[in-house]
């Protein structure tokens, strides 16, 4: 073993440290000491002095050191990669991916706008009861028949649409805050619980629309669709964060198949409407 071999081993270890983000001063490999050691008169003397040294045996196992360095590189590369289940580095930091938060925000604003339109439609109905609203398209699609009923004022007589505007506005504020930082775990779980309650209300309103009013409110359907997607997507985000059902098969299936779950729920609603209001489907064409 010569001095050049020693320098090669030392430089290999230096490259390993460089990959880890540490840059030690490697005078033997790159500095003036290295040149003197390799090319000067002290090189041979130094080599003969350390050839039998116990320290030299540490550098003698070159393949092992190279394997260790390669293993470290592989481990760090794997740590930088995102898992296959949709979890991102933001998830590990307590925040969903930016694309997920943008989706939640867009859905929230759409639902809030639809709720606001329902509020305006109810005001218009109260002012001019005999007028047809813009949402009254045909005998199947219309909203004026349900705006002034008790089903549309469940909370102490307050219009459901007005409550929806306030709730979706607050939800948008939470998602905006989440984009720039973290929120407490209890708040995320509380929002998901509220959306679960919203899913129960959707089932109730769908039943009333089909069997009581025999009409479908278009703005209501927009709010329902946004709520369903919010419920599924936020639930998946919380499960990826480990805030809901951590480490369970249910969480893995939900996060991996979240869009399929959303499509199934929406398809079930369409099928229920198609079966129960089949005599009015002709008005869609």
UniProtKB/TrEMBL annotation:
Membrane disposition: Multi-pass membrane protein
A Pfam family this chain is assigned to: VKOR
Localization terms from the record: Membrane
GO molecular function list: oxidoreductase activity; quinone binding
UniProt keyword annotation of Transmembrane helix present: yes
CDD domains, sorted: VKOR_5 (cd12922)
Keywords: Disulfide bond, Membrane, Oxidoreductase, Quinone, Redox-active center, Transmembrane, Transmembrane helix
Source species, domain of life: Bacteria
GO cellular component, one term: membrane
Annotated ranges, domain Vitamin K epoxide reductase: 97-238
Transmembrane segment boundaries: 101-120, 154-177, 183-206, 218-239, 259-277
Family as reported in the entry's similarity comment: Belongs to the VKOR family.
Protein name, entry field: Vitamin K epoxide reductase family
Organism of provenance: Mobiluncus holmesii ATCC 35242
